[in-house]
Design goal:
TIM Barrel, 32% helix, four-stranded parallel sheet, alpha+beta, Glutamine Phosphoribosylpyrophosphate, subunit 1, domain 1, 2 domains
Length: 610
C-alpha cells in the first residue's frame, strides 16, 4: 500500500504501528492508527465530558508566541467524526503545536494517580496540581505510543489497565510493544528489559539518541516552571473559617460582592425570580415526611428510613438485593423524580471496571471552582482556583464560599433561584428560559461561580428539578461559548441519594450543597457519615465505568435516559442516548406540582409573591 516502505533503501529513525480490532467505532481508513502523534490502545471513558470541556475552552484559546492562532482559526479542535483515540490525538496535537512537547502534553492530559502517593516528589505533585487547574484528565484504560518528531515513547494510563513492555539493546535500539517477543533478538544483545507500571512513561530523544526512564522525564518536566510557588499562591480551599461577623449565609439573590446582603443585584447581573425567603430552610426545625420541606421535594418515608438512616448510621450506602422490578419512571403510576429517568452506564467490551474498595489509591474526588484558564498558556494566575476535597459541600463551606466571593473578584458568585410559579405546568419552560438567561447575564457580569438554589420554595413558587436546571444551564453556556468562565454549584433540597449526586455532577455541577438532606442527617445522628456515604457511592458509580477522578467524571454524561421527550434531551441533556421517548416539560412539571400541593395545600390558588 505504501510504496516507500517497500523500498529496501528507505531508512527511518523510528517506526510506530498499531494493529488491533476496533471496539468502539466502525473501522475505516480515516480512523486507522497511528494518527498525527499517537497510537492508542484502550478506551477514553470520559470522552463526552472531555469533548465538551475542550469546546468550552475554545473561545479562550490563545498561544503565546503564535499571534495567528485565534480561536476562530483553531476551532473546532476536535473532529467529531473521529474515534476516541483520534479526539485525544487532536488535543495532544493542539497542545504540542502551541509550544509544549508531546511528553508534557501526555503527562498533563493523562496524569498518573498522583493525589494519594505519599512518596511522590513535591515538585512533581505541584506540577500535577497546577495542570489539574487547566484541564480534566482523559480517563480510561490506555497504552499510548507517541512521537512529535523530536521525542518518541510510550505511556500508560493511571491504572495501568493496558500492557506495555520494552527492551533496550546494546546498540541503542528500543523496542516497546504490548507483548514481549515482537522482535527476535539474541539475549546477549539485550541491555535492559522492563515493563511500564501505572502512569509511567519512557521516551527516546531522537536528537541525541538517549533513552529516558519515567522518573527522569517527569523530574525534567516538573522543574521547567515554579509550579509549587504558583500553586501555593493561587489555590484556595474552603477549610478556613469565615471572618468574624461574616459567617452568615447572605440572602439568596444578587451577584457578590457587588450586591450587598439583602439587596437586589446591580443592573445587568443575575436576580432571583421573585422569592427570597427560605421556606425549606432550617427554620422549619425538622425534616419529616409530610412537613413542607420534605413534601416539596418528594421525600418518602422509605427514603428516610431505608436509604438515609443507614447512610447516617454506617457511613455507606445501604445494602440491598440485586435486581429492580419497579417500573421505569415514565411508566410508573407513582410520581418519580427526574433522576429516576436516567440509568448509569457501565464498562464493557474490553474496558474493565475498577474495584473502588481495593484500588482506592487511584481515586480522587477533588474538584475545583472558578473560571477555567487558557489551555495553551502557562502562567501563575492559572492556579487561582478554589480546590474542594469533596463535591459535597456543608453549610459552613457554603458560607465560606460566599465570603470569598465578597473579597475575591475572581470568585464572584451569583445565586440563581431555580424556581417556577406554582400556577400550572406550563410555567416550567418559561422559567427555565429565564434561568438560562440570568445565568448568561451573570457570567457576562463577571461572576465565575453560579449557585443554582431552590431555597426560596414557598406556597407561590415550586422548585425546578435540580437536574433539569443544571443540565439546561450547562448546555446553554456551552452553546453560548461561555461555559469555561464559570463553575456550577447546586444548592438544593432535592438530592438525597447517590444516584442523584452522580447525575448532577455528570451533567455539569462541580459541587452540590444538599441542605435538606444534611439537615435530615443531623437529625438522624451524623452529617459527616452521610457525606462519607455519598462520597463512597460516587466512587462506586465512577468505578463501574472505569473512571478514577471526579474532575473527569464531571460533565461526562455517562448515562442513558429512558422515557424523556426529545425536546427535553436536546435542550438539557444533549448527547444522551434515549431509546424510548416520553415525558416532556409539562409532565415533569406536573410531578413537581403534585409534591408542591402536598407541601402547601391550596397552593394552586396562591399567587407568586414576587
Amino acid at each position: 500500500f505504501f510504496r516507500d516502505l517497500q523500498d529496501p533503501d528507505f531508512e527511518t529513525r523510528f517506526v510506530i504501528f498499531h494493529q488491533r480490532y476496533s471496539t468502539n467505532t466502525t473501522p475505516t481508513w480515516e480512523r486507522a492508527q497511528p494518527f498525527r502523534l499517537l497510537a492508542h490502545n484502550g478506551e477514553i471513558n470520559t470522552l463526552q465530558g472531555n469533548v465538551n470541556g475542550i469546546a468550552a475552552r475554545e473561545p479562550l484559546l490563545a498561544a503565546p508566541g503564535w499571534p495567528e492562532a485565534t480561536p476562530e482559526l483553531l476551532r473546532p479542535v476536535i473532529d467529531p467524526g473521529g474515534s476516541d483515540s483520534a479526539m485525544l490525538d487532536n488535543v495532544v496535537e493542539l497542545v504540542t503545536v502551541a509550544g509544549r512537547d508531546v511528553r508534557h502534553a501526555l503527562v498533563m492530559l493523562v496524569p498518573e494517580a498522583w493525589e494519594k502517593v505519599p512518596d511522590l516528589p513535591a515538585e512533581l505533585k505541584d506540577f500535577y496540581r497546577f495542570h489539574a487547574c487547566l484541564t480534566e484528565p482523559w480517563d480510561g484504560p490506555a497504552a499510548l505510543v507517541f512521537s512529535d518528531g523530536r521525542w518518541v515513547g510510550a505511556r500508560l494510563d493511571r491504572n495501568g489497565l493496558r500492557p506495555m513492555r520494552y527492551t533496550v539493546l546494546q546498540d541503542g535500539l528500543v523496542v516497546a510493544a504490548s507483548e514481549t517477543g515482537v522482535l527476535d533478538v539474541e539475549p546477549e544483545r539485550v541491555r535492559e528489559h522492563g515493563k511500564l507500571g501505572p502512569g509511567q512513561m519512557i521516551a527516546v530523544d531522537l536528537a541525541t539518541g538517549r533513552f529516558f526512564h519515567d522518573q527522569e522525564i517527569k523530574a525534567e518536566l516538573a522543574r521547567r516552571r515554579p509550579y509549587g510557588e504558583w500553586v501555593r499562591r493561587g489555590v484556595i480551599t474552603l477549610e478556613e473559617p469565615a471572618a468574624p461577623g461574616n459567617g452568615r449565609v447572605p440572602a439568596p439573590d444578587g451577584c457578590g460582592p457587588e450586591a450587598p446582603e439583602g439587596t437586589s443585584a446591580a443592573p445587568g447581573t443575575a436576580t432571583a425570580p421573585g422569592a427570597t425567603g427560605a421556606a425549606t430552610g432550617s427554620a422549619n426545625g425538622t425534616v419529616r415526611v409530610g412537613t413542607p420541606p420534605a413534601a416539596a421535594f418528594g421525600y418518602t418515608k422509605e427514603e428516610l428510613t431505608v436509604i438515609l438512616r443507614p447512610m447516617v448510621e454506617n457511613g455507606k450506602e445501604p445494602d440491598g438485593s440485586m435486581g429492580d422490578d419497579t417500573p421505569h419512571a415514565v411508566f410508573s403510576r407513582v410520581h418519580r423524580p427526574l433522576h429516576h429517568y436516567f440509568k448509569q452506564r457501565f464498562a464493557q467490551v474490553t474496558n474493565p471496571p475498577i474495584d473502588h474498595l481495593r484500588e482506592e489509591l487511584v481515586f480522587s474526588l477533588t474538584t475545583r471552582l472558578g473560571p477555567r484558564p487558557n489551555l495553551l498558556a502557562e502562567e501563575p494566575g492559572q492556579a487561582r482556583v478554589i480546590e474542594l476535597a469533596s463535591p459535597v459541600l456543608t453549610g459552613r463551606q457554603m458560607a465560606r464560599l460566599r465570603e470569598l466571593g465578597r473579597h475575591e473578584p475572581r470568585f464572584r458568585w451569583a445565586v440563581l433561584e431555580m424556581l417556577f410559579p406554582a400556577t400550572g405546568p406550563e410555567a416550567l419552560e418559561p422559567a427555565l428560559d429565564d434561568l438560562c438567561r440570568r445565568a448568561e447575564e451573570a457570567v457576562d457580569a463577571g461572576c465565575s461561580i453560579l449557585i443554582l438554589s431552590d431555597r426560596g420554595v414557598d406556597a407561590g413558587w415550586a422548585p425546578i428539578p435540580a437536574l433539569l436546571a443544571t443540565g439546561a444551564v450547562h448546555h446553554h453556556l456551552l452553546r453560548a461559548g461561555k461555559r469555561a468562565r464559570a463553575s456550577i454549584v447546586v444548592e438544593s433540597g432535592e438530592p438525597r441519594d447517590v444516584h442523584h449526586f452522580a447525575t448532577l455532577i455528570g451533567y455539569g455541577a462541580a459541587a452540590v450543597h444538599p441542605y435538606l438532606a444534611l439537615e435530615a442527617a443531623r437529625e438522624l445522628g451524623s452529617e459527616a457519615n452521610f457525606i462519607k456515604a455519598v462520597e463512597g457511592g460516587l466512587k462506586k458509580v465512577m468505578s463501574k465505568m472505569g473512571i478514577s477522578t471526579l474532575d473527569a467524571y464531571m460533565g461526562a454524561q455517562i448515562f442513558e435516559a429512558i422515557g424523556l421527550a426529545p425536546e427535553v434531551l436536546e435542550r438539557c441533556f444533549t448527547g444522551t442516548p434515549c431509546q424510548v421517548g416520553g415525558s416532556g416539560f409539562r409532565e415533569l412539571a406536573e410531578d413537581v406540582l403534585y409534591w408542591h400541593r402536598l407541601a402547601f395545600p391550596g397552593a394552586a390558588a396562591a399567587a407568586p409573591n414576587g
